[in-house]
Design brief:
Elements: H1 15-28, H2 33-53, H3 77-116, H4 120-131
Length: 132
């Protein structure tokens, strides 16, 4: 059965007696206690100073997102089609440039294989296998 009143532990605690015991032990230690007190104080102070120097800031606040539309809300279908056509031309031009870069890479790879004495087909097939 659990006790419902005050815990009996606190009935036996007397701060006056604890202070008297501490005073008696402090007087009995003699003069050799001061280096140990200084060492304990220095260690405690250094640990707390390291803790205080650390940054205790939380994570940065989340950025505020502002949505910007680059077109007006009352565009006509003809304006939309014209902008889509212009964007499609840009995409086609970028694809054309990429295909030229790819062709140039293949030519350089073939020249490197010839220079170093490798079979280009073998190197190319291994490159494709690694990419998968």
């Amino acid at each position: 059965m659990l006790p419902t009143g005050k815990p009996t532990y606190w009935r036996h605690v007397q701060p006056v007696g604890a202070l008297a015991d501490f005073r008696a032990v402090w007087r009995a230690t003699g003069a050799r206690r001061w280096p140990f007190v200084a060492l304990a104080f220095t260690a405690t102070l250094s640990v707390f100073s390291m803790i205080m120097q650390e940054s205790w800031r939380g994570p940065p606040p989340k950025p505020k997102i502002v949505y910007i539309n680059s077109w007006t809300a009352n565009r006509t279908d003809a304006e939309i089609a014209a902008s889509n056509l212009a964007n499609q031309k840009v995409q086609e031009r970028l694809a054309q440039l990429q295909s030229k870069r790819d062709e140039h890479r293949v030519v350089e790879s073939q020249q490197s294989c010839v220079h170093f004495g490798f079979l280009f087909e073998h190197v190319e097939s291994r490159t494709r296998d690694r990419a998968r």
